[in-house]
Amino acid sequence: MNVSGAAPRPGEIEEPMGITALAQIRPGMVLAEDVRDVNGRLLLSRGKTIAPEHIRVFKIWGVSRVAVLGARESAPAEPPAVDPQRIEAVRRELEPRFRHTDRRHPAVAEMFHSAVLFRAGGEPPFPPEPELSPAEASGAGRLPRREFLEGFMEKEIALPEISSIVFELNEVIANPLSTADQMAQVIHKSPSLTALLLKIVNSALYSLPTPVDRVSLAVTLIGTRELSALALGLSVISAFNHIPRRVIDMRRFLEHSLACGIACRLLAAQKNLRQTEQLFSAGLLHDLGRLILYLFFPDDMLAALRTARREGICLYEAERRELGCIHAWIGQVLLKKWHLPLLLEHASCFHHEPEASPDPLPAAIVHVADVLVNALGIGSSGEILVPPLRPAAWEALGLPPECLATVALQTARHLETMEFLLRETLP
């Protein structure tokens, strides 16, 4: 986190200032220097009075100290002490979940360390593994493995009413003469989507200096493609909120998906990529194929869950054994069918093998985000174990392993501020 200031203007009297730990910051204090995030984006300008919402934004973006007028220099705040026995207990609990990873890899080692601190720092224990209904002896309702993909291709699968809005948004974006007002008119056709988008844009995820009350203004501030990608992700994920709990806990599924989207956005920001919102949506949709399987082929998916649990393998490997394909392939079929942007298709559908993607970097970002969120144990799409990190994907990112600790912390904090999305997307 950068705290940068400027020299006093002519005629100004330079007031005493001190670099103050965030834990000692109180509303009403005045900033002596600009506060910026890791990419130099301005969070709050010099001379502004700090309000409670500013302190919350600073925490989310990992600000640890700021320069305040009239304050004395304070020592860095000591991190809260964690009982060594608690850390050791969490370490033992996590080690089996990392059984398929190479913990000698610097990035995996950083993920494991971050996961231990995250779980030891007060996170609730991992929920018990869900009870799976016993397999039917006759296998009724299941397609033979060799016929599964054929049966899937023949099945009529379509998005609910929100799909028309998705297509209209794509048409508006494809037209270089389209305006922010035209895009807003399409989004306004769904009042629930409009309200949700405005809530997200006004959340600490964006930290905009003033409230946004119009979609057209949000388009102007965030960007046409970015807001469209966000609308698309929310539209698709909310279309599957009625999957029965006996198959998957949709709240935990959405938690995992949302955390992956946030982590993708943060990793993209670390790389100074412009498509942060498109990558947010790619992370949100990376397990779209699993939603399809849970909804339309629950018996087949339950068989894969049982195999993964029984043999101690990752769920996508169990899918390969039971179905002859993995959820990412199913998601790719649907994203192609719906004519969604190629970046979303490639990033979402190659997240288990990003080096095979025509555009490896976005797929690598989703891959690393998925591994990190599974390591932290935030939500679940049915996977209990941490998938192995593909070394080529990590090399494609070209980031230092140390950045993963920051991304992990900020992902958890952003997710807290997006609690309303979990409430309003699920029944």
Q: How would you summarize the topology of this molecule?
A:
Elements: E1 2-4, E2 17-21, E3 34-36, E4 42-44, H1 52-60, E5 65-69, H2 84-94, H3 106-120, H4 145-154, H5 162-174, H6 180-187, H7 191-201, H8 215-222, H9 224-238, H10 250-270, H11 276-285, H12 288-296, H13 298-311, H14 315-323, H15 327-337, H16 342-349, H17 360-376, H18 391-397, H19 403-417, H20 419-425
Antiparallel strand pairs: 1-3, 2-5, 3-4
Structure description:
The strands form 2 sheets. A 3-stranded antiparallel β-sheet has the order 1-3-4, covered by helices on one side. By secondary structure, it is mostly helical. Among the domains are: 2-69, Molybdopterin biosynthesis moea protein, domain 2; 145-156 and 240-425, Hypothetical protein af1432 (Orthogonal Bundle). The protein is 53% helix and 4% strand. It has 20 helices and 5 strands. The radius of gyration is 23 Å and the shape is globular. The protein starts with a strand and ends with a helix. Strand 3 (34-36) and strand 4 form a beta hairpin.
